[in-house]
Amino acid sequence: MRNLWIFISKYNAFFLFVIFEVSALFILINYNSFQKATYISSSNQITGLAYQKVGQVTEYLSLATVNDSLARENARLRSELRSSFYIDTLTKKSIADSVYKQQYTFIVAKVINNSVNHRNNYITINRGSKDGVQKDMGVICGSGVVGFVVNTTDHLANIQSVLHKKTKVSAMLADTRDLGSFLWGDNLDPHQGLLIDVSNNVKPRIGEAVVTSTLSSLYPAGIPIGKISNLHAKEGGMFLNMEVSLAVDYSKLEYVYVVVNRLAMEQKQVEATRVKDE
Question: Is 277 helix (H, G, I), strand (E, B) or coil?
Fold first, then answer.
């Protein structure tokens, strides 16, 4: 306390100056309408700017939560698309739309590891078997096809990317619905792939969309793969090969959707029986 009094007495002139200045400003602002209006306007502007900056910082810090929420909402909306249902024509029609049965649902996941510059690329996501993710489930994103699940742990899953030499996707031309197979190719360009084995009587055009076909058990039909960027005739002339500009930028993946096909196991069992008979 003694040191405080010594400090105040030593700088008493300064403190008196500050008190007089504050008092003078208070009297000036409160008893002069022009100065008062100027003060209020300036203080409101400063306060508003401060609130804006605080709001921007808060908004930035909450981006992760917002992104998670949007991804979950997108997964829910995808599950409600007509392409996620199949038509059961044997169902009684006493209830409107009762012939449409849910076939696909989607599990949202965040990408935690990814590669695009290898011959065989993989993606790790933060969802695993405890979240309902299983081996051989297809994976898509908002832009198109991503790959399929090759193994899982309780909380993580590993995805074989489209950018992999062994990935092959049943595909079709969006306009004519002519079938083919999509694969990455040998040029290791993460933005280009190939649509192969398309019938040679088809007349595709540059820029035509390539999407997943109705024959795929991994993905709903119509999921984007890319667009035709060049045309080549396969040796022998029996089929057409087409270069495809990929719809997905795999280097920028953040959120993906694991495709849950409720009929996948049943389809596998049926097809396995057929192969055994052959």
Answer: helix
